[in-house]
Design a protein that fits this description.
kinase; GMP kinase activity; cytoplasm; 196 residues; nucleotide-binding; Rossmann fold; 43% helix; globular; Guanylate_kin-like_dom; five-stranded parallel beta sheet; four-stranded mixed beta sheet
Length: 196
Amino acid sequence: MTTTPRRLIVLTGPTAVGKGTVEAKLREHHPEIWVSVSATTRAPRPGEINGVNYWFLTEQEFQAKEAAGEFLETAVVHGMAHYGTLLQPVLDHLASNTPTILEIDLQGARRVKQRASELGLDVLYVFLAPPSFEELKRRLIGRGTETPEQQARRLETAKIELAAESEFDVTITNTTVDQAAQELWTLIAREYQINA
């Protein structure tokens, strides 16, 4: 029996590729997986629960934790709210051999890479890719949650994010949610020495 903490799994990919949907499908079949809950300074939206959707912190609380080195990574989103991944829960779950995932955007993944090397943290970086850019565009427009202007901005961002695929250890193409979730589970099972 090894006491070496397992690798942290960092899942990223372009906007609208389905990271959250794949992660939800994975947890549906494998509830033993722990997905990190981000901290934020933005106000809770209706129905959001502290500690489930996000850890809701005041600006002062967030800055104090950041100054104390309590985050694995942080970002300011849309020039307003701060977001971050609390380090200690990640370390605790890895030490207990619990399959641990960070579902994060490209900038966050790059910050994790920088901080992980400082901490000596072992990380497997997984890139979730669409079958094609046209399919990504179809999915984004099909969601109907953004205005045409927002869609255009997201698609421009997606082109930049797609160009970063080579920075990652493994690519999973999200052809179907079930297939992508199964491929991700196979990776996790191998990393954590679980019989898939």
